[in-house]
Amino acid sequence: MATAMVIITNSTALLAGATVLAASLVNIINPAITIDPMLAKHLTYAFGHIFANCTIYMAVIAVYEVLSEYTKRPWKANKVFLIAWNCSTLFTLMIYTHHLLMDFAVPKWMLIIGQVFSYANGLPVMVVTAYGALMIVYRSRMKWDFASSLFFLSMFGWVAGAIPAIIDATIVVNHVMHNTKWVPGHFHTYMGMGVVAMIIGFMYYFNKTEGNQQHRGIDTFTIALYFTFFTGLVGSFLYAGGISAPRRWAEHLPQWVLSDQIGAVSGIFIVLAAIIFTARFFAGLRSVGTNVPYNKNSAAG
Q1: Which of 158, 145, 167, 222 has its CA nearest to residue 192?
Q2: Is there a domain that residue 289 lies in?
Q3: Is residue 58 part of a domain?
Q4: Mean pLDDT of all residues in 245-251
Q5: Among residues 38, 240, 283, 299, which is most buried (max CB within 10 A)?
Q6: Do 47 and 166 fall into the same domain?
Q7: Which whole number is the average pLDDT over 52-80?
Q8: Does residue 72 belong to any structural domain of this protein?
Q9: One domain, residues 138 and 159
Q10: What is the DSSP letter of 194?
């Protein structure tokens, strides 16, 4: 279901991006042929926002599959689950317009769609997935290791990242906050503590099932290090947005510097955690396949 949703939405995103790219190339070759600037902006945002959303919808497949295996409980695709994914398929194609709420030239009905469906899109799949994760883990007596811990914590990252996004999708808030560091705050929460956590969790799950990698104390420490300082990073972004620190500025006023410093220090420890993650992963790769019995009949293959 998740894969079908991503194929539908991401194909649309790629078509939008290819259209504006082709039109831009044609314009370079023949300046007399132009594309409407507003249309070009809509196509660009449609491509970028849908593509970014699809990363987590694809990564969450690992959460569905692996947590079910850990808990020995099926993640049932009931009617509520299917309705939620169908709604998300439709909403994801529409909500890029919340990035255009500050554009006075955009038709008002499109801005209303951007606000209303940005609110709506935060609920179906996210709530069903987060609630489902809680339910299959509850009293399951599952074994917590690196992969299961990251998959479960990634649900927190997804939900926590969606909350400031929904706030920013409110038109009156967006007019004040959208060009501040509030936006990278929500996005880094969603991606760093959600998507990246799912990807790293699956990498370790692969090494565990295909190799001989075991959960160590350093893995528990690294998870705590990563999530603690990622919370510090995104917290510094959101706080900076709250005091109107703009994004993409080369110089900051004195009152904005403290949040910058907190973010920089947090970033150092996030990089350290990422280095440990990577080192542990490649160390596990060296043993991949060693637990598979040798079969001389398949040696020729």
Answers
A1: 158
A2: no
A3: yes
A4: 88
A5: 240
A6: no
A7: 86
A8: yes
A9: no
A10: I
Which of 137, 128, 126 has its CA nearest to residue 159? 126
Clarify whether residues 81 and 47 are in a common domain. Answer: yes
Which domain, by its residues, includes 81?
A: 1-142
Residue 299 falls within a domain, yes or no?
no
Which residue blocks in the chain are alpha helix, DSSP H?
A: 2-29, 37-71, 79-92, 108-121, 124-137, 146-168, 171-177, 182-190, 196-210, 217-242, 254-285
Please, which residues bridge with residue 180 across strands?
A: 246
Contacts of 120 (CB under 8 A, 6+ apart): 87, 91
Q: Are 127 and 88 in contact (CB under 8 A)?
A: no
187 burial via Cβ count (<10 Å: 0-12, 13-18, 19+): middle
φ, ψ at 246 (rounded to 5°):
-75, 155
Name the DSSP class of 181. T
Among 91, 125, 142, the domain boundary falls at 142
Please give the C-alpha separations between residue 137 and each of 127, 129, 130, 140, 144, in angstroms, as whole numbers.
Answer: 15, 12, 11, 5, 10
Q: Does residue 297 carry a pLDDT above 80?
A: no
| Top-confidence range, 35-39, 126-130, 160-164, 233-237 | 233-237
Number of domains in the chain: 2
pTM for this one? 0.84
Q: Rounded distance, CA 27 to CA 297, Å?
A: 60
Angle subtended by helix axes 108-121 and 79-92, to nearest 10: 150
Say how far apart CA 89 and CA 121 lie, in whole Å: 9
